[in-house]
Every structure is written in C-alpha cells, then in structure tokens.
Amino acid sequence: MAQLFQGALKQMIHPGSVKLKIFRPPHCFKHTTSCKPRTWGNVSRQGLEGQAQQTQQQRLLKDIKSRYTASALAFLGDAVWSMHVRRHYLLPPKHSTKYHDAVDKHSAAEMQALYYDQLIGSSVALESSSHCSDPTAVHKVSSFASFALSASEDAVIQWTLSEPFLYRQRFQGKEGAQVAYQKATALEALVGYLALTDEARLGQLMATLLTFLPEQ
C-alpha cells in the first residue's frame, strides 16, 4: 500500500514522467480540401441532392403538362419576352416609334429563331440573316454565353417541337420560315414555362439572351 502511495505521489510531483496519449486528427482534417464528400454506398451527398432536384423538376413538368398545352406556354412566353425586351430598351427615353420598332424586330419569329439557335449552342452567324444587319449584334455573337438547359427545360422545348403547328399565312409554303416559327415557338414556351415555375431561372435566361440585343 505504501508503495502504491509513493508511486502516485511521484506522478503528482513529476507529471512529465506520465506518458499522455495525444489525439491526432485525421490528415483530411488538416487539409479540408483533400477530404472526400461523405458518401452513402457509391452515391455522394451532392449526387443525392441532384437526384432529388431532378425528381422535383420532373414532377413539376408533369404537373405543368397536365394543366397547360405547349401553345399556352408559348402564348404566355410571348408576352413575357416582349416585356423584357421593352424593359431593355426603356432607357434612354426615345420616340414611341423607336420603342415599337425595337420590340417588333426582336419579337419576330426569325429573330427569336436566332436566339433559339444560340441558346442550344448552334453556330449561327447573324450576318447571314437579312433581319439582323446591326454590326453590334453581329459582334456579340462571338461572346454569347451558352445557357445550359436543364433536363426539364430541354423537355419543354422537345415537347413544343413535337406538337402540330398552325402556321400563319406568311409562313405557309415556306419551309425555312416554318422552321424559324417552330424554333421561336419553342423559345417562347420555355420562357412561359419558367415564368410559371422559376422566376430566378427566368431572370438568368433573359439576362443571357438580352446580351444579344444591340443598344438603340
């Protein structure tokens, strides 16, 4: 008993003689950038969140398609598109004729078809179109930032393009004009879809497309 007491007393007087086990964190705690994301099986947390978001978008698209037609979305999208173009040209103040000329030019099917081509990454040269002779607009084609469509947004476009079209008189009998009308309608349907489902995403889309507009 005396020996045990002396040993305890010696440890109190000379604490350095006691070997302490120091906890050392894992290497990844020191360099957080080297840590791998937490996984469940073979699926990462980011992957699960992406799948959940995609599932939500699919359900939302299904609900939209059950309530509206592609033509209804394009009808709404036409008005939303026009509003954004009008806002773009609102300043500086100008004559009402110039206001209407700018809106009519950029709301025409031929011009919207060019926006559509740029949106899906097609290399369309503006100078090849008689509807777009503005050198400023031609210059901006090279710096146009492609808008990465989500799966649901691409589905809206494909759904619209698969629908039968009733062409206006000026598009009848003109294959190229009919293709332009189809693209313009698909773009308007996408705008209408985002106006109903995701205003923030709509703002991103319009901000991307409006960089294409020349100043007037």
TrEMBL record:
Ranges of residues in domain RNase III: 72-198
Residue spans crossing the bilayer: none
InterPro entries, per database record: RNase_III_dom, RNase_III_sf
UniProt xrefs under Gene3D superfamilies: Ribonuclease III domain
SUPFAM superfamilies named among the record's database cross-references: RNase III domain-like
Name used for this protein in its record: RNase III domain-containing protein
Native source organism of the sequence: Dunaliella salina
